[in-house]
Design brief:
The protein is of the alpha+beta class. Helix content is 32%, strand content 21%. Strands 5, 6, 15, 16, 17, 18, 19, 20 and 23 form a nine-stranded mixed sheet that branches. A six-stranded mixed sheet has the order 10-2-1-14-22-21. The longest helix is centred in the middle third of the chain and has 35 residues, at 410-444. The two termini are 46 Å apart.
């Protein structure tokens, strides 16, 4: 078969290609750039625990450890008052395990939210370099630099792509994925609209080397005091990097005025001086901004005004690298008697970051897909667009690999758009609903007057966005995915993880006897986890042949897609003999009591899309026009599907009208309603079925797909045999298993 083509060599495209290559799918990355990576210290990314774990599984753990950092705590401050301080837990209890080397990307999802795992903060160029290095070690993948896509054609057998430039040629692929950024050529060639809002937020950015009063801790400072005592305003974040480097972001007022170099230097000096003065005052009074201090940051001092001048887009978005003129590369010193000290600093890089909110109307057209910034743009209120792009890559990689190796049904390929577009829609909706409260309301002051404690609640919303919590940042749950199995309620077990949500990263024992985090085994197929307390004290030679293990192993070997059996001492909310089925991207498919062959088979069938009837020979699957296919049905279901983009993003009046009605929320509305209940200020109150609405479980076609040559495949023979056996074995298998569980005879020892 032809390889998969990935257009674009940013972090999302490289991660997708690397994930495919590790699943034995040959891939070609078409890179428009010449291949060199431009270091930009001010261009950094914050990776949530789930996306950092995904990159570690791809082999980028050592690079994240050396170039990135984890924060020891997060501070949320308003004016001179510390509102919240979140301390982060240990990186990983498996840091000494060969399967999980010590690195900041070895996360464990703790059972208690009191000690969450810190995000990983890393320069984007270091991440891209690590991905390129890992991809170069894969024999089935290559990057072709200097290749600009200019034509794209699809037929019933694959995709043809033409590039111009030094490596201009026609390329042939089984599937193609556009990861080529906001101005995606793939999206334009597929004639997919990209509606949304421009310049939702703008930030001035600086990377500098200095010492701040809270080493290792990140800071969100709202309405900071000004040096001259002229009131407060604005918002600034400070996030540490290795080597004493900090990234500082200042929220800019609305407008498009240029941010001059002098104005940016004034912002830097003003922030550093205020923090130093308040830390000194706090240290003298027993409270303050110093790490480990109490509830306040102490009375500030200082006497410098006018540092907020010059707001706007200095040199355009992303411009402004290198030391700023007038700073001399270093700053510091103490002014007159009323001017606080500015600690020494070395300015490394500057720029302006403009946040847009956009969402492509479709993420799949035939054999071509969109991912990352080509499919969506977000980033207001602390959310991270790269996080969502990496989740796109992880979601799509295992589905394309399954399609490439075994053939794919419509449901499997359409599920990428249904799941990921719905999740991003919910994130964008939550941000759009929160923006008027957090920005317009704060500037007008009306919410502080009407709602007691509103400032603290608003800061908590921002903290959620920065730390990956709640509707603004938490990993998505695909509870209404088209790949969800139609399970028998009598077989289902309730555990601490909602069906469709990411599983907890508990310790598990693999078949080779090694103890690893559960999420370290993701990526290559289904995971079937048996919860069996007490197995840790037994030798593997004994418990592998005892209790439920022989029957479970035999059942898993017969599933229609690759799967691995793991054993866990415990799982949050699960009782002994609970069996968990986990997708390759870490989302829970089902939890059941005991070994139930028919139900396990049904789960595997659902995850692979209901059968292999739609392989590469079946041609493009568009889902357009008549609403065929899961994504087509979601897109074509009247106002709920077709008008969602306009209703959410095109105009403030329509946004507020839609939010107030609470009906017909459109694509992803169900997710928005569920996630929105976590916020206290009306975020995510929409209702409706959404694009992930009630998809019927696809009926399994009789027999299997035949290869192009006409000879039935071994997989087709096995599938047909299982079809004949399922009708007679289902009830007997259930009865035997339930008897074992009730009697305790199936206990693993």
């Amino acid at each position: 078969m032809d390889p998969v083509i990935v257009v674009g060599a940013g972090p999302v495209g490289l991660a997708l290609a690397l994930a495919l290559a590790r699943l034995d799918v040959p891939c070609v990355v078409l890179d428009e750039a010449p291949g060199a990576i431009d270091p930009r210290p001010a261009r950094t990314v914050v990776l949530r625990p789930d996306t950092a774990a995904f990159l570690e599984r791809l082999g980028c753990g050592p690079a994240l450890e050396s170039a990135g950092t984890r924060w020891t705590a997060w501070r949320s401050v308003r004016r001179r008052r510390l509102l919240e301080r979140v301390e982060f837990g240990p990186e990983s209890p498996f840091s000494g395990s060969p399967a999980s080397p010590a690195s900041p990307a070895s996360p464990v999802f703790p059972a208690s939210p009191a000690s969450p795992v810190s995000p990983v903060h890393v320069p984007q160029h270091a991440l891209a370099r690590a991905l390129r290095t890992a991809l170069a070690a894969q024999p089935g993948a290559r990057i072709v630099a200097g290749s600009r896509l200019d034509d794209l054609r699809q037929d019933e057998y694959g995709v043809s792509a033409h590039t111009r430039g030094a490596n201009g040629a026609w390329w042939r692929a089984s599937y193609l994925v556009g990861c080529d950024g906001p101005r995606s050529t793939v999206r334009k060639l597929l004639e997919i609209r990209f509606p949304g809002r421009t310049a939702v937020e703008r930030h001035a950015v600086a990377a500098l080397r200095t010492e701040l009063p809270w080493p290792g801790e990140a800071l969100l400072h709202r309405s900071p005091a000004r040096q001259g005592g002229g009131g407060s305003g604005g918002e600034v974040t400070a996030r540490p990097l290795p080597g004493g480097v900090w990234r500082l972001d200042w929220l800019l007022p609305p407008g498009r005025d240029l941010v001059t170099p002098d104005a940016l230097v004034a912002r830097i000096r003003d922030s550093l001086a205020v923090w130093t003065a308040e830390a000194e005052a706090g240290a003298g009074s027993g409270a303050g901004i110093v790490s480990g201090a109490g509830a306040g940051i102490g009375p500030g001092s200082g006497n410098r005004a006018g540092s907020e001048a010059g707001a706007g887009a200095w040199g355009g978005p992303g411009a402004g690298a290198g030391p700023v003129p007038g700073s001399g590369g270093r700053g510091g010193g103490r002014g007159g008697p009323h001017v606080p000290a500015v600690p020494p600093y070395e300015l490394l890089d500057t720029g302006v970051h403009t946040v847009h909110h956009r969402l492509a109307r479709r993420w799949r057209r035939g054999r071509a897909f969109l991912a990352g910034d080509a499919a969506h743009l977000l980033g207001a209120l602390g959310t991270q667009g790269l996080d969502e792009g990496l989740r796109d890559a992880e979601n799509l990689a295992w589905k394309l690999a399954l399609a490439w190796h075994q053939g794919a049904s419509e449901a499997l390929l359409d599920s990428y758009q249904a799941e990921r577009r719905g999740a991003v829609t919910a994130r964008l909706r939550a941000a759009d609903r929160a923006l008027p409260l957090l920005r317009d309301g704060e500037r007008g002051g009306r919410w502080r007057a009407v709602l007691p404690g509103a400032a603290r609640g608003h800061t908590a919303m921002l903290t959620d966005g920065h730390l990956g919590r709640g509707p603004l940042g938490a990993p998505p749950a695909y509870a209404r995915s088209p790949l969800a199995p139609a399970t028998d309620p009598s077989c289902a077990m309730t555990v601490g993880t909602q069906v469709g949500a990411p599983v907890a990263d508990v310790p598990v024992t693999a078949s080779d006897g090694s103890e690893v985090p559960l999420r370290a085994r993701l990526g290559r197929g289904l995971l079937v986890v048996l919860v069996a307390p007490g197995t840790g004290v037994w030798d593997r030679r004994h418990w592998k042949s005892a209790g439920l293990m022989p029957r479970l192993s035999k059942t898993v070997d017969a599933l229609p897609m690759p799967a691995e059996v793991l054993v866990a001492e415990s799982y949050p909310g699960a009782v002994a003999h609970t069996v968990l089925v986990v997708r390759p991207d870490g989302h829970l498919v089902a939890a059941m009591g005991g070994v139930r062959p028919a139900e396990l088979y049904a789960c595997a069938e659902a995850v692979r899309g209901g059968g292999s009837g739609g392989g590469p020979e079946d041609g493009p699957r568009d889902g357009t026009g008549d609403g065929s296919g899961a994504a087509g049905r979601a897109e074509g279901a009247g106002l709920a599907g077709r008008a969602e983009g306009a209703a959410v993003f095109e105009g403030e009046a329509r946004i507020r009208a839609e939010n107030g009605s609470g009906a017909g929320a459109g694509a992803g509305g169900g997710l928005g309603a569920r996630n929105g209940t976590e916020a206290g200020a009306g975020i995510g109150t929409g209702a409706g079925a959404g694009s992930e609405g009630p998809f019927a479980h696809p009926a399994r076609p009789e027999g299997g797909r035949e290869p192009a040559g006409g000879t039935p495949s071994p997989q087709a023979d096995r599938d047909a045999g299982r079809d004949m056996a399922r009708g007679t074995d289902r009830d007997a298998a259930r009865d035997v298993t339930e008897a074992e569980v009730r009697s305790g005879g199936g206990a693993v020892r």
